[in-house]
Amino acid sequence: MRLLTRFDLEFDISVPTPFVLMLRPRSGAQQWIAREEYRLTPHVPVFEFTDGYGNLCQRLLAPSGHFAIHTTAEVVTADRLDRAPGAPFVNIQSLPDDVLAYLLPSRYCEADRFGVMAAELTAAQRPGYDQVATIEAWLRASIRYLPGSSGQPLAATEVNTRQYGVCRDLAHLGIALCRSISIPARMVVGYLYGLEPMDMHAWFEAYVGGRWYTFDPTQPEIGGGYIAIGYGRDAADVAVYTQFGPAVFPLRQTVEVHLDTRHTG
Amino acid sequence: MRLLTRFDLEFDISVPTPFVLMLRPRSGAQQWIAREEYRLTPHVPVFEFTDGYGNLCQRLLAPSGHFAIHTTAEVVTADRLDRAPGAPFVNIQSLPDDVLAYLLPSRYCEADRFGVMAAELTAAQRPGYDQVATIEAWLRASIRYLPGSSGQPLAATEVNTRQYGVCRDLAHLGIALCRSISIPARMVVGYLYGLEPMDMHAWFEAYVGGRWYTFDPTQPEIGGGYIAIGYGRDAADVAVYTQFGPAVFPLRQTVEVHLDTRHTG
Amino acid sequence: MRLLTRFDLEFDISVPTPFVLMLRPRSGAQQWIAREEYRLTPHVPVFEFTDGYGNLCQRLLAPSGHFAIHTTAEVVTADRLDRAPGAPFVNIQSLPDDVLAYLLPSRYCEADRFGVMAAELTAAQRPGYDQVATIEAWLRASIRYLPGSSGQPLAATEVNTRQYGVCRDLAHLGIALCRSISIPARMVVGYLYGLEPMDMHAWFEAYVGGRWYTFDPTQPEIGGGYIAIGYGRDAADVAVYTQFGPAVFPLRQTVEVHLDTRHTG
Amino acid sequence: MRLLTRFDLEFDISVPTPFVLMLRPRSGAQQWIAREEYRLTPHVPVFEFTDGYGNLCQRLLAPSGHFAIHTTAEVVTADRLDRAPGAPFVNIQSLPDDVLAYLLPSRYCEADRFGVMAAELTAAQRPGYDQVATIEAWLRASIRYLPGSSGQPLAATEVNTRQYGVCRDLAHLGIALCRSISIPARMVVGYLYGLEPMDMHAWFEAYVGGRWYTFDPTQPEIGGGYIAIGYGRDAADVAVYTQFGPAVFPLRQTVEVHLDTRHTG
To answer: Which domains does chain A show, CATH number per domain?
Structure first.
């Protein structure tokens, strides 16, 4: 399908503030950025770099006063993401080098604390995709998805105690559970067409059967309409904006995802 | 200044043909991509990756039949590029690690053959920026810039014998001369506002005084209006498209660069 | 000074077990590996790769039975590490791209929880090196260094509550405090000549005044004799060995660091 | 087999001279560095970095006077390298991203000049390994291997005209021929046990059947005893030492490779 996205941020800045933004989706196997717009008002110098996960990041110093970021994109993405019941667990020694880091515990995914729980949850499953699908189903059934219920990211252990959370929280717990049974898992932030209420979204991917597969415990099932903006170990790596110095909260934040009906191809 | 670019390519493909494209300019210190469009007709799966020089490259398999690539961009770029007479030569041992590779000879820049010539040309100059400026001035005076005069890239030794060439040829000779006196130099391809006749352009950068500076022997002097698409050691690294298998020539290739008069900011 | 190190590990393995080892120190600005030995008994195939932090890592599948790792090195290292009172805070917008990641919270360094505490601790200091030195002095005075007091890594918040810990624990708290005032900080594991009791050691580095400086709250003052093996965000990234599957504990672990008296140079 | 290598270089330096050395073999799938020694006399500060091909490089400023580099290693390597007749050509679109660069022409491998010749040579072969084996056999039969016959590296076109060359020259021609039929190929420098006369050696690898395979037209057949030190596009990338400024020639250069008979394992 072809989607039109919009993400706008407006700030009222009191002192010049350094930002790192992650708002430029990359074209990859699963999505193609056919058109993209990225404007800053006022326009300031920006340095773009690729971080350790392959994300395009933009560094800038936001000046005092009103500062607005306006992005839109037109993206060709899959109508329906791949699923692969039965896809096997990949032996550690066969994992690509750059996938290994996604086995380690991280700030919000304390994989080192979930070994027993994950083993019990997935005991009846074939190692691999089916274990992750079981974790995703357990999250759907056991952790209430409550958009707007938290501001700061929560760690997987906190989410497991609290039993509810935002998309990011559910992803953190899912990632921690996967890693604790030696399945590499990573966080994705981006857009989801049809998300209710509309907002930036977060989900996770697990590496089984020789590639990454998408899992999203906030949705009844994996359909399509996903647009990835950033990948990382957890929310610490993939904030769409990171700001340094005195906290600055956006005056306004707008997220829109529409179906592009102008194209027939 | 704010520029609007357009680059279109059309092919008539007889057998499915792998391409690597380099048509997505990166935002960096000197330019900001405010809007970008990149369409393929028909649309085919594309994989984007970052090459060893930091360029965004797109891999695809072009299907048989008519195949068109359409790109446009709106870019904020410097009105006038920095110049730095007197900027000093950087000692080899002080160069950043990733700059060292730009001292080595490469396919079209046989730096190992120009030591004596470059030493003679630049003997009267302070080591650094002034040497490169002298090389640029010598190219301007001695190698005739003849757009359209060659199809395949020529190596610096060939250009030096022939005494004329396209922008790419002059850049190759400039790069070879710089490297032969231990000044790192690299090739840039992109757009230049006001280029006559309009086409894709190529120029070079040299690393002196702790950063890269732009040099362009095809122009009477360095102004502004440059938009970089790709960086590399020479033309072998920064082809805007590389195609594998039986040669396919574009039916049509269109390059346009306009001043954006809609914005006042 | 010239040091001789030895690190031996012996395991009794019940089922073939994947390991990632980080036991090959790199030569860098501060140390030169003049001789190195790295043996596995029995010898098994090993794949070496460079991780995202520049560390050399070795992947292997340890076979069932007795498995021993034997490493020695002869290293030329500084007699006394640099100190730089007054070295200034580096503005976020001036940090190298690859240093930015060391500002983010990580598994054991919850920088997002220490903003107020770090600001209070360092309020009287000039921003930069002096703030870090104050954090180091506070750790020395307030968190008891108790070698052997913990097995699993503890997070900075846990260490702060507990008020004692091993070298790794003190480093985690120091790193979290630095990052919370926007000073990049990273974990280092390696050897320290004269450490009592002798063992693998951990300390931290902070990025101020345009480079990394070493801090070690477990020692009365920073001298010399440090040999780095690995760098990372925290202990999750720089385990000298990471093992997957059922837990395997070493039968024996030997660490030795001696002064090399054979050389006079 | 287990091999002991020695490579020593001695210089008489008139003015302080920057060097980049590539003398630290990496442990990889095919070889394990069990012991290594790397000494400089006099000892000077050295910075080690990983270049764009994964090689460990050492940068230093050699002081005036006598300067010696002494390296030894004990390496476990294959008794017999893999061969794979029939291993298929890998479609361009299926090549790993980081292999693509080995399809491009480079300084000494003008792949763009050998399309017709390579197509004719390999016309009767199945695409892939068998084409490369045919190129290797043709080199063996047609280009005389004359150790010591050239000082400076020659480009593939020059080697093809001259019809004789050193190991490096034969490798350059083999690489250019492979790339011209869209088979990625790269240069390797290192040691070969039993080489006559003993010296540093060079050979090439081609990517077919999903991995790199070794080819060596200087030897009657591929056996074992190869130890790789560096990989690159051609000799420009993998000089064991690159020196800048006025040319300095080694007073003495010693290469030795022995079978290690002390170990029975």
So the answer is: 2-78+241-263 (2.60.40.2250), 92-233 (3.10.620.30)
